[in-house]
Specification:
Length: 300
């Protein structure tokens, strides 16, 4: 065999330097303590015969493991506390955002309600002003017609013969009106018109509970199977023109010119008519003397 061949050693492996130093330190500390205690005692003291057990590396490892475990548990608890604090902060932030959003929504709804209320109030005010304007216009038109009739009456009064003839004609007309009775289609028209007395006046209304003047006339004639135009001046342009002294139930009365009338109504006999007048009066039955029409047409 070669002299340089490797021969396995049967010696025990050396302990690591750190372990030897730890044991040496522990042993040295214990011996130092014993020496100091012996030196401090009386000279004739009995030698110490108590056996002192040296701490072992196993117990030191156990203590070290317990300390590490305690430190890890403390770190874990601290991390858990931080996580809970973060969750609480997030919850508070979310609650604040939700409250802010709810307040903004409530403010928006309140503003919308105020705007809707203002709109309704403006519409009601505009409707009232429109109705008042219509009433004033009708009053002015009636005053103008009354003035014209007054002037005509004054002119007629200057001629006694014409006045006597007119009185005679009016008397015969009144007598005729008092005995007029509607029949057939005229009866259906008159009955329908009278049934609507008390309904509201609404511009553009065609029933069943609110009307304007031409809407009521159109609906009444529909009861007799007759279709009339929707507009007042178109209705007054139809049929045959008749004088106010020769009226029959069912005739259409108009105010203004025949081809340009601004109001219509239905003659119901007895010197009276039914018409949708204005927003303040609604559908009414009136005497011809209350607002004398400009003319009349006969459709039947």
């Amino acid at each position: 065999m070669s002299q340089t061949a490797h021969i396995p050693s049967h010696r025990k492996p050396r302990r690591s330097a750190s372990k030897l130093a730890l044991r040496a330190g522990v042993a040295g500390g214990v011996l130092s303590t014993i020496a100091v205690a012996g030196a401090a005692g009386p000279a004739n003291a009995e030698p110490v015969t108590e056996t002192i057990e040296m701490p072992t590396l196993g117990s030191l490892g156990t203590d070290l493991s317990s300390a590490v475990a305690a430190s890890a548990e403390a770190s874990e608890q601290e991390a858990l506390d931080q996580s809970l604090e973060a969750q609480e902060a997030a919850a508070l932030e979310k609650a604040a955002k939700d409250a802010k959003k709810a307040k903004a929504e409530a403010d928006r709804k309140a503003e919308a309600e105020r705007a809707e209320k203002a709109r309704k109030e403006a519409e009601a005010k505009a409707e009232a002003e429109r109705a008042a304007a219509e009433a004033r216009a009708e009053a002015r038109a009636r005053a103008s017609r009354d003035a014209a009739r007054t002037q005509i009456a004054a002119t007629s009064a200057s001629n006694s013969s014409d006045s006597g003839s007119s009185d005679s004609s009016d008397s015969s007309s009144s007598a005729s009106e008092s005995t007029q009775v509607a029949s057939g289609s005229a009866a259906a028209i008159v009955a329908f018109a009278k049934a609507q007395v008390g309904d509201a006046y609404v511009s553009g209304g065609t029933g069943p509970n609110s009307w304007d003047c031409s809407g009521l006339v159109q609906a009444a004639y529909r009861q007799a199977g007759i279709d009339l135009p929707r507009i007042s001046y178109s209705q007054s342009s139809m049929g045959t023109s008749v004088s106010l002294s020769n009226l029959q139930p069912g005739d259409i009365l108009y105010w203004g010119s025949r081809s340009g009338s601004y109001h219509v109504a239905i003659y119901v006999g007895g010197g009276k008519y039914v018409g949708a007048q204005n927003p303040s009066t609604g559908v009414v039955e009136r005497s011809l003397d209350w607002d004398t029409p400009s003319g009349a047409v006969r459709i039947l």
